[in-house]
Design goal:
The structure holds two protein chains of two kinds.
Chain A (H helix, E strand, L loop, with lengths): L7 H7 L7 H28 L13 H26 L9 H22 L25 H34 L3 H10 L7 H34 L11 H27 L8 H32 L2 H12 L3 H12 L8 H4 L2 H27 L15 H24 L5 H16 L1
Helix pairs in contact in A: 2-14, 3-4, 3-7, 3-8, 3-13, 4-5, 4-14, 5-6, 5-7, 7-8, 8-9, 8-13, 10-11, 11-13
Chain B lengths: L10 H26 L1 H4 L13 H7 L4 H4 L14 H8 L10 H9 L19 H6 L4 H5 L16 H9 L21 H14 L4 H4 L2 H4 L2
Helix pairs in contact in B: 5-6
Classes of the chains: A mainly alpha, B mainly alpha.
Organism (chain A): Amaricoccus solimangrovi
Keywords (chain A): Cell membrane, Membrane, Transmembrane, Transmembrane helix
Pfam family, one (chain A): NrfD
């Protein structure tokens, strides 16, 4: 049977055994392994010499680590929302997107979580954030968003793992049944947890999956709120604003959909999945990107308006710093990259063409990074006291860690693409079956 | 095609999960026990010393006051260890040829102090001052244990943060009259008497527990 004659859904399960683009995969994987090595070196340097190798210091004591933390977490949120929200609302177009979007969530949450831990100064004591009986009789400060953040991200990580894994169990069973090598049969068989496709299995699975989905959606709001409040709960001009949780939420899913757009287009091209990730899916991603982009834009406007309307001299000064200060490039860079190319998505022709969509996604991904950088640095570099003003430059090792962290994201993601079904095969089948049945009816 | 898994394949992961739960629970309980054990806190572990000095003999049987040797305890952060000359106030007269005391005589002859090994050790990030504790009437025995019953010196209490904070958060029952601060045996003080004295002492010394567990009190 030739590849073209094959059922496009069946092709998904054949990808791990007969990968369509091995050379491209090896090149990408080699690059990500190099980045992973850079990550290990940067962490090693950090642990040996301490956080002094980074450029952050009073007054900008958060630096690139927290910028990247917020950025990676934000990217993760789109995966959960695409998957859980569209599952609960019964949108079948979700099925071609959810699996890799969830994998994206999982790996970006891991990357995000590593940043604040490495930022601690003594990373090996990170477990002090957890409340456990100890010989110091010290507990976390439950009134602090820092403690909420720890819980939120930890629960989100566990939730993301559960959601991704639960959703993949029936596909693991299918892979077990189709694998030819003994090793793959046993590995997928163990991952499938003895799935035999009984009605009882399906009933329990459906219950568990929808339950985790229903928990995951509010979790996204909880996590964005907790790290938005890291900023907003302090008396810092430019940060202490009620709009922040909503603003951060919109920005998070905006950046996440942008990365989904990049990944969807790349996988579609590399694995020949044009029949599954259709123009209709690209259209959906484009629409979501446009809508969340406008919500984020509203956040920018509301943030500026609140500052001006407050009449507070410090708030207005911070706004002024953002527009014309030392970091104005990050503000206008964010505005330009986030919103200018985005306007092309008004046209359906752009939304359904893969390359422009991916390029707009890339522009938004970078723009949202600039926004996180702008929000963090402009809030801190000119504080209340003129005597404590100071400029922040990220050091070489901060950039190295950031680049390395991209490797921490890419390496497992590429392994996922290479060895696991990148789409939810059984759900695609189910949706197709229901569509045909509806046609008969 | 032969079956991939045997009929018992479902059972093994279940057993594994059960064992995993047992293992994690056991690890937590063992860990909790370990950090409070003498193995970690060094309580009751004798430390080797150049001379086998007996507090049981000197402080207990002979009744020499703690401050005779630890002279700085009332006025300085460190209680201090005695100079060789302090040992020699007596040992130039008695047990002058005892082989056990050879290092002391050698120290005097060479003018080099004895190198005692520390028993009560606090980490460098914890600030501690003996003088304030002594002047407010925290008796030696509270932290150092029944030194008068130790033939060889050992740690009497676990110097964990919890140990410090237990007293800092509720000092009253631990306070004694400052003029009897070196007394070791308080068994004749009932709980009521200690509570009554503690209440008055807290008032007299203006001790406010609400401020005694601020981070900056010990971590300066």
């Amino acid at each position: 049977m030739t590849d073209a004659a094959l059922d496009p859904i069946d092709r998904i399960t054949r990808i791990p055994g007969d990968f369509p683009a091995p050379r491209a995969w090896w090149i990408c994987f080699g690059v990500s392994l190099a980045l992973l090595l850079l990550f290990l070196v940067s962490v090693g340097v950090l642990l040996v010499f301490g956080v002094g190798v980074w450029g952050n210091n009073i007054p900008v004591n958060w630096g690139l680590a927290i910028v990247n933390y917020v950025w990676f977490l934000g990217i993760g949120h789109a995966g959960t929302l695409i998957s859980a929200l569209l599952l609960l609302t019964g949108t079948t177009r979700r099925n071609a997107l959810n699996r890799f979007a969830e994998a994206m969530t999982l790996f970006s949450v891991i990357c995000a979580g590593l940043f604040p831990v490495l930022h601690l100064g003594r990373p090996w004591l990170f477990y002090w954030m957890a409340p456990y009986p100890n010989t110091m009789t010290v507990w976390p400060q439950f009134k602090s968003p820092l403690a909420w953040d720890f819980f939120a991200v930890l629960i989100y990580l566990i939730g993301s793992i559960l959601f991704w894994y639960l959703g993949a169990i029936p596909d693991f069973a299918a892979m077990r049944d189709r694998s030819r090598s003994r090793f793959a049969q046993v590995a997928f068989g163990l991952a499938a947890l003895g799935w035999r496709g009984e009605a009882r299995h399906w009933a329990r699975w459906r219950q568990a999956y929808r339950l985790v989905a229903a928990l995951a959606v509010p979790l996204v709001f909880g996590v964005t709120a907790s790290y938005a409040l890291l900023f907003a709960a302090g008396p810092v001009p430019g940060w202490a604003s009620g709009i922040f949780p909503a603003y951060f939420f919109c920005g998070a899913i905006f950046s996440g959909f942008a990365v989904v757009a990049i990944i969807a287009v790349t996988l579609r091209h590399a694995l020949g999945l044009g029949a599954l990730v259709t123009r209709s899916h690209l259209n959906l991603i484009g629409q979501l990107l446009l809508a969340t982009g406008f919500m984020t834009g509203y956040g920018y406007a509301a943030d500026a308006f609140t500052a001006l309307w407050s009449g507070d001299a410090r708030e207005i000064a911070t706004l002024h710093d953002r527009w014309t200060g030392a970091y104005a490039w990050s503000y206008w860079g964010a505005v330009a990259l986030n919103f200018l190319p985005l306007q092309l998505l008004w046209f359906r022709r752009v939304r359904v063409s893969p390359v422009p969509l991916a390029l707009i996604g890339l522009s938004v991904t970078i723009g949202m990074w600039l926004e996180r950088y702008m929000l963090l640095v402009t809030g801190l570099y000119r504080d209340w006291l003129v005597s404590s003003w100071g400029i922040y430059h990220a050091s070489f090792w901060e950039w190295a860690l950031f680049a390395g962290m991209i490797g921490v994201f890419l390496a497992p993601f590429l392994l996922f693409v290479r060895f696991l079904p990148v789409m939810s095969v059984f759900e695609l089948r189910e949706a197709r079956h229901e569509k045909r049945e509806a046609g008969h009816g | 095609m032969p079956q991939i898994f045997t009929p018992s394949a479902d059972t093994w992961p279940r057993v594994g999960v059960g064992l995993g739960i047992v293992a994690v629970t056991a690890a937590i309980l063992l860990g909790a026990g370990l950090v409070q054990s003498a193995y970690v806190t060094s309580v009751d572990w004798v430390v080797d010393q150049p001379v086998p000095f007996s507090h049981l003999h000197h402080a207990g049987e002979l009744g020499i006051d703690c401050r005779y040797c630890h002279a700085g305890v009332e006025s300085a952060p460190n209680a201090g260890l005695p100079a060789t000359e302090v040992c020699m106030t007596c040992h130039s007269q008695i047990w002058t040829g005892a082989p056990m005391l050879a290092p002391v005589r050698e120290s005097l002859a060479k003018g080099e102090p004895l190198r005692w090994n520390r028993v009560a050790r606090l980490p460098d990030y914890a600030y501690f001052d003996h003088s304030i504790h002594v002047s407010r009437g925290v008796p030696c025995v509270e932290c150092h244990g029944r030194v008068d019953e130790m033939p060889l010196m050992k740690r009497g209490e676990p110097f964990t943060m919890a140990f410090c904070l237990d007293c800092h958060r509720d000092p009253a029952p631990h306070l004694r009259p400052p003029d009897q601060v070196t007394r070791m045996d308080w068994s004749d003080w009932t709980a009521e008497r200690a509570a009554d004295y503690g209440r008055r002492a807290m008032e007299a010394h203006h001790i406010e527990p609400s401020r005694l567990d601020d981070c900056g009190v010990c971590h300066r």
